[in-house]
């Protein structure tokens, strides 16, 4: 089985507005057609790509494909959609056994949808995705409702529409023209066309407002959410207070460490590095380096926060738990949250600082030190 995708992109798309055909307008920083072609090029079961384009669009096509290292066969389209598809069918690579015919203005097609169409061709000469009509339907005229219309058995058609190559070639050769899509051509030739589950996100850009909807889908689809954990422990030593989350907390001991031993801030910092898969504090600020002796831990935290921004993420939430018998954290937790929010450049409601004891068990229960556990969530829209 060899699958070739035919991308039909020869139309003018005037209903979408703009100074160029809709398939060459930008969507999420890339031309619509570039996104469409890339979706099929990335699919492991698609081995050939044919793009049917308007003869006047060579420069626009080159711009749309910029940055994509793809082997694409280009063919000029005809005066109608079915004529353009016929041109595409004539240009598929030798050895093609199945074709997927897709609208160039459907840039959000998913790999799973492509798989469903290809799989259905094992048992049917044709297959197409569709969504069942769920809204009430009316017949109307002159701005008035004339009568309800039953919706049973009605579907909203999508692409790619897949076919065994010889069957759809013969169907197009026999068709008089004027078909709305290739399923209509196939049915006229008596082909059995299976319906596979469509996808609401696989929208066809037709009007200007469709770009806004497609942008929303892209933001949701491309969102990268990462979570990192951090854990740190520091022992007590002689002193008159501890530094926790940048706040000096009175105590009859201090925390021992190479830096200021801010166990809470260290845990949050390591959680950020963990979410970025970017090592830990010790890798960025080696304890063997004397310049970090006694350093304020906000240096480490600010560095981690900077790495978040450099990678295009933002901090969605941070949760810190301090584990100790003493000092009591509750009275100063608010000040700790405020200071961490300030250092991290986030809203106060995105940082949580809380404490628990270990019920007098272990080293924290024996008041030998403080432990901290942190979880940080990063988002890249």
Feature tags:
19 strands, elongated, 381 residues, eight-stranded mixed beta sheet, alpha/beta, 30% helix, five-stranded mixed beta sheet
Shape: elongated
Measured between the Cα atoms of the first and last residue, the distance is 38 Å
Q: Average pLDDT value?
A: 95
Largest beta-sheet details: 8 strands, mixed
- Measured by DSSP, the beta-strand proportion falls in 25-35%
Count of DSSP strands: 19
Helix percentage: 25-40%
Supply Rg: 30 Å
In the predicted model, the low-confidence regions spanning at least 5 consecutive residues are none
- Helix vs. strand class: alpha/beta
How many helical stretches? 12
If you had to describe this structure to a student in words, what would you say it looks like?
The protein contains twelve helices and 19 strands. It has 381 residues and is α/β, with parallel strands linked by helices. Strands 1, 4, 5, 6, 7, 10, 11 and 12 form an eight-stranded mixed sheet that branches. A five-stranded mixed sheet has the order 16-13-19-17-18. The relative contact order is 0.11. The longest helix is centred in the middle third of the chain and has 14 residues. The radius of gyration is 30 Å and the shape is elongated.
């Amino acid at each position: 089985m060899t699958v070739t995708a035919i991308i039909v992109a020869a139309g003018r798309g005037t209903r979408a507005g703009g100074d160029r055909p809709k398939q060459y307008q930008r969507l999420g920083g890339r031309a619509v057609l570039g996104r469409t072609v890339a979706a099929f090029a990335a699919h492991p079961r698609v081995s050939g790509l044919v793009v049917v384009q308007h003869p006047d669009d060579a420069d626009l096509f080159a711009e749309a494909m910029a940055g994509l290292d793809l082997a694409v066969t280009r063919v000029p389209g005809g005066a109608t959609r079915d004529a353009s598809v016929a041109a595409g069918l004539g240009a598929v690579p030798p050895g093609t056994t199945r074709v997927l015919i897709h609208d160039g203005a459907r840039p959000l097609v998913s790999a799973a949808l492509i798989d469903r169409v290809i799989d259905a061709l094992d048992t049917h000469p044709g297959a197409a995705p569709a969504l069942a009509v769920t809204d009430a339907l009316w017949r109307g005229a002159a701005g008035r409702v004339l009568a309800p219309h039953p919706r049973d058995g009605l579907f909203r058609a999508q692409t790619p529409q897949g076919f065994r190559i010889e069957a759809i070639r013969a169907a197009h050769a026999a068709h008089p023209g004027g078909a709305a899509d290739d399923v209509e051509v196939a049915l006229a030739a008596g082909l059995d066309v299976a319906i596979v589950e469509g996808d609401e996100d696989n929208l066809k850009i037709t009007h200007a407002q469709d770009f806004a909807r497609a942008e929303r889908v892209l933001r949701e689809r491309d969102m990268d959410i990462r979570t990192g954990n951090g854990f740190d422990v520091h022992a007590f030593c002689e002193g008159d207070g501890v530094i926790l989350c940048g706040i000096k907390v009175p105590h009859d001991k201090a925390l021992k460490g190479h830096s200021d031993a801010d166990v809470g801030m260290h845990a949050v910092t390591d959680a950020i590095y963990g979410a970025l898969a970017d090592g830990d504090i010790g890798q960025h600020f080696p304890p063997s380096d004397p310049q970090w002796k006694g350093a304020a831990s906000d240096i480490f935290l600010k560095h981690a926060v900077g790495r978040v921004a450099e990678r295009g993420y933002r901090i969605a939430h941070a949760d810190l738990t301090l584990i100790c018998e003493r000092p009591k954290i509750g009275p100063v937790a608010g000040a700790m949250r405020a200071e961490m929010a300030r250092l991290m450049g986030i809203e106060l409601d995105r940082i949580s600082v809380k404490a628990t004891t270990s019920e007098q068990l272990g080293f924290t229960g024996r008041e030998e030190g403080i432990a901290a556990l942190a979880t940080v969530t990063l988002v890249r829209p």
